[in-house]
Structures are given as C-alpha cells and as structure tokens.
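REVIEWER CHECKLIST
Item 1: Sequence provided? yes
Item 2: Single chain? yes
Item 3: Sequence as submitted:
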Amino acid sequence: MRRTLSTPLSIVLLTATCSVALAQAGTAVHHGECQHPANPLRRHADCLDEDFNWDETFEGGWSGIRVRMRKIGVTPTMSYTGALQTNASGGQHQVWSYAGQLSMGFAIDLRRVLKIPGTSAYVGMSWGTGSNLTGSLGNSLPTNALYAPGFYLGEMYLRQNLLEGKFKLAAGRLSASNSFATLPVFANYVSYGINPNPFSIGSNDITFFGPPTGTQWGSKASYKLSPVIEISAGIFNTNVNSANGEGHGTDFSWQEGNKGVLAISEIDYLHNQRMSDRGKPGQYTVGLLHNDNSFATLPDSQQKSAGYTGIYVMGQQMVYCPNGPATSKGLTTWATWTYNSKQLVNPMPMFAGAGLSYEGLISARQRDIVSAGWIYGKASKFVPGTTEEQMIEVNYQWRHSQYLVVIPQFQYIRKPSGRSFPDAAVAGIQIALTF
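Item 4: Structure as written out by the authors:
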C-alpha cells in the first residue's frame, strides 16, 4: 500500500532557558529554526548550516568517518524512529501494528567544496517498514506518521544565504510541510494529526505533504524583517504522482495531468526569543495558501473543479517557568486553527487543536516532557454520513540522552472518519534514536 503521508516526528532535545527559547517546543540546543540538526527525519532547509556536537548522536563521530567528511564539507546524519501501537478498543478486531523509518541525509557545505559563499546543498532518503494501524481503524487523523514502506529518495535542494543570513533561499526538490504551518511544540506528539502540521492541510492537498513518500520541485524564501518578525513564501509543483512517491521519489516530472502551483506565504512573530529578552518565549504564526490545480470533486470523483484557498493560524506560548529565566523547566500551551474555502474538493475544510507540554514535571527527570493535546477535524458536507473526528493524545517523553527518546503514549479517537464507527483507544510506545 503506497503511503500518501509525510514523515513528521522530530526528536526534540532541550537545553533551553525560559528567556531565550521555547522550552517544551524544543527550540533550544541550536537556533529556534532548527530543533535537532543531527536528526534527518524532518530536517528542513533552515537546519542546513547548523552543526551539532557528537554527544547528540549515539555513534558520535562514526569512528572518525564524520570528522573526516566534515573537514571536506560533507556532514552525514542518520536516525531511526519506530512506533508499536495497538487498539485496545475500536476497529473490527484488536491489531498490533509496528511502523518504522530509517532516515539518512547528507548536508554539503559548498563554501568549502566549491568556494561559493553562503551556499549549501542537501540530499535525504529513507527506508520504511511495518504496517498501518490507521488503515485498520478507519480514522482520518493518523495514529502515527511513520508508515511508508520501502525506500524513498527525499528532499534534494540548494540553499543560499544572503544579507548576513537575514535572507535565505532554497530551491530544488522540497516539501512544503517541512517549512510551513508548523510549530516546534507539535514535535512533542506521536499522532500525525498534529505532528508536524495540522493534518487537514495535507489531507485537502496531498502535494503539501513531504517525504516519505513525496517531494515537489519548488522554492522557498524567508526574510527576517526584525529580530521578532520573519516572513516566508514558497511555490511548489502540484504533481500528485510525485507526492505519492512514484518511482520511490524519483518522479521528477513537472506535469502529469496537473497544472499551476501551490503557493504559501507566512508571517511569524517570535516573542521573547532574543538573547536579551527576559520574558517567557512564544511563537505566533499566520499563513495563507492557494493551489490553482484542478481537484476531483467529493460527490463525483470523475468531475473536476478549480483549486482552493486556505488559511492557518497557530501559536505557542510558555506560561509558567517556576525556576526563573536560567532554566528550561515549565509549561507551554498551544492552539491552532485552519480553514479551507472549498468543501466541494476539501475533505476536511476545518481543523482545530489545543494542548500543553510540561518539561520537568518530575523533579528527578528534569528534561522529560509530558504532553496532552486535543485535535478536531470537520468533514466536508459533500461526504455523506460524516460529521467530525476528534482525537486526544497524552504522552510522556522519557529522555535517556540527547540521542535517545522513548515515548509511551495513549490516544482516544472519537467517531473515526466522522462516521458512526466505534470509538477507538490506542496505546503504544515510540522510540527515536539518532546515530
């Protein structure tokens, strides 16, 4: 079964303080743009110039291989993420499901290789194994984002930094989901319903999803208007075959029945994230997207209709920091809302969610994080017999080290796919290891 979803989970490692980073969200060890550059699972373009220490990885310098490669401008990364889950209730019968992803990437510093200032490149790939629990339950909001069996070529792009790093441009084989409509705190969840993006955006438009399985030809630019305001924009091809991972990610065609582009613009307000700020940090994002491709209508898939316009609003804010600005312990809350304009072609036109994450709730485990979240997806009125699906997730991130995270988790799914199916309770554990 070909997977039409992207891989979401990022390993989030925290050494942040309340005054300069988003503690629960993972914007800490490095810049807020890049949560964990040693992990290639969802390494977006803003991570490309970020170095990492060997203690962030299980195998360190790979017996000197990484050290020698880095000297010539090439940095290899590798990670494994696996989830074992079962439905304690719901579905036709109880199923144990495992899904895993082995990811690898190569960041290339072209300043060293070709002596081109501010230029770098990236190539990613993955190998997936396992089964799809969501397919057994019939729900719309997937229980995890790891099901993509087989080998897939991932993002491949060039990136250029200009104006002392204020302006960044990336172009090549890219994923919109890796760069837009996401918050750092979303990476604290297992469900693909919210990690890394509100699921409705990709459910309505598969070309938004990223690898594995798919990528698109595209470009993305970002500019820091000020230390607290950043604007971004991107345009991406709309090839559905490429989004589905045709040829294991090697379908490089521009048009195969598609037309137009997926265009996205976004503005981010980075609250209290400068080194001099002493307040509790937050991030607030507003985005607009438009796709002028033709889409199959929901009442009749043989009929086509013009594209859609969508909007998303999201934010996270640290609200409690008991040990003061020199520590990362505390509580972060978040909320999100998305809306797509055309129910005729959008199966999930409205989505909402809210939650919280607390780092250091147990005094003996200061870097562990407990998270709870609720998400809601409303079905289109053109899909008969459906209303809305809701999911609640509670999890605990046990952080053995910077390279190993174990996450016991529980999800409760109400009205799978918005139909009169039995509610489902899903329990499981996820392991993330960075090599």
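Item 5: Key structural point noted by reviewer: The chain has five helices and 18 strands.
Item 6: Recommendation: ____
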